[in-house]
Write a structure and sequence with these properties.
Length: about 110
């Protein structure tokens, strides 16, 4: 998801750069380049949407696409909580209450 999002951000930046040239005088812009970058934006957007759909089907709540921050519903001591994981962490090692966010993360007991 994070990689797909990165590709989408890059494609959007290229799209914006071409848009600026077109808004100027449009000189030196190959129509194929415009179509190619448009297709890249569309493809990357579909990839991100697919990732979000798949995670949603698993019950995962995406808190940040860019940083890969995810919450997983769970029950702890009879209460609903969210397990919390971010890309780069070796395992799910934190939790927080339903009304708390990332700042309220607490380590899971080992």
């Amino acid at each position: 998801m994070v990689e797909c999002h990165g590709r989408l951000v890059e494609a959007r930046a290229r799209h914006a750069a071409i848009g600026e040239k077109v808004a100027g005088n449009g000189g030196g812009i190959d129509r194929r380049d415009v179509l190619e970058v448009h297709e890249e934006v569309e493809r990357a957007g579909r990839e991100v949407a697919h990732c979000l759909e798949e995670l949603g089907r698993l019950g995962v709540v995406v808190k940040s696409i860019a940083s890969g921050l995810l919450d997983f519903p769970a029950v702890r001591d009879g209460e609903g909580v969210l397990l919390c994981w971010r890309v780069g962490e070796p395992e799910v090692a934190y939790w927080h209450g339903l009304d708390e966010g990332f700042a309220g993360r607490k380590p899971l007991p080992l």
